[in-house]
Amino acid sequence: MKVTPTDLPEILIVEPDVHRDDRGFFFETWHAEKYAELGLDASFVQDNHSRSSRDTLRGLHAQRVHPQGKLVRVSEGEIYDVAVDIRAGSPTFGQHVGVVLSADNFRQLWIPVGFAHGFCVMSDHADLQYRCTDVYDASAEITIAWDDPALAIQWPVEKPLLSAKDATAEILAHFAPAQLPTYEM
Fold first, then answer.
1. What is the pLDDT of residues 118-141, one digit of tens each?
2. How far apart are CA 62 and CA 140, in angstroms?
3. Of 101, 102, 128, 139, which one has the fewest beta carbons inside 10 Å?
4. For 153-185, what is each residue's pLDDT tens digit?
5. DSSP state, residue 164
6. 130 catalytically annotated
7. Domain map of the chain by residue range?
8. Architecture of the domain defined by 45-179
9. Which helix (H) or strand (E) holds 133?
10. Which residues contact residue 22 at a Cβ distance below 8 angstroms, ignoring those fewer than 6 apart?
11. Is the separation of the CB atoms in 122 and 76 below 8 Å?
12. What is the pLDDT of residues 72-93, one digit of tens each?
């Protein structure tokens, strides 16, 4: 298994060892001890699976209460996955990382607490599976505009399919520091 820090070093790209033969493939999507040895020591309490069609864009989402770290992977299709640092006081506040995750590349993306998450679908459809370090709490959700000009995310979609919540989200600058996660060294 290979773990690579991104431009935001807390966000990690995990490339598991994939064992292939004529019958197909096998790989471990999570092994607590092995991942901890490589710097990803997390306790997961909730697993999620979503399916979305081409050009769907979900995000950018985080939670004030019960903030979630997420280990994201795609089991079918291809997405452009984005994590944005929204930690008040962080030296990388407002910066983002974007990574292509697909069923073909087997990559996983570790998004720690304090980062907003979003993705768009680049294939006909995509199945996204992610493990979370805390439970989902809709009443604590922060939704940041996917097209916030200050974030300058280059989404690979011209006319995304959005939920009503995502279509009316606020830009990051409209959130007071007290509404956001706090950076801790």
1. 999 999 999 999 999 999 999 999
2. 8
3. 139
4. 999 999 999 999 999 999 999 999 999 999 987
5. H
6. yes
7. 45-179
8. Sandwich (2.60)
9. none
10. none
11. no
12. 999 999 999 999 999 999 999 9
Residue of 80, 96, 117, 130 marked active site: 130
- For residue 30, what are its two tokens? 């999570």
ω before 60 within 30° of 0 (cis)? yes
Identify any residues that bridge with 15 across adjacent strands, giving them in sequence order. 2
Dump the DSSP string for 46-81: EEEEEEEETTBEEEEEEESSS---EEEEEEESEEEE
CB distance 142 to 180 below 8 Å: yes
Alpha helices in the chain (DSSP H): 32-37, 164-167
Residue type, 153: I
pTM (predicted TM-score):
0.94
Tokens matching residue 34: 């092995």
Set 35, 61, 96, 117: catalytic member = 61
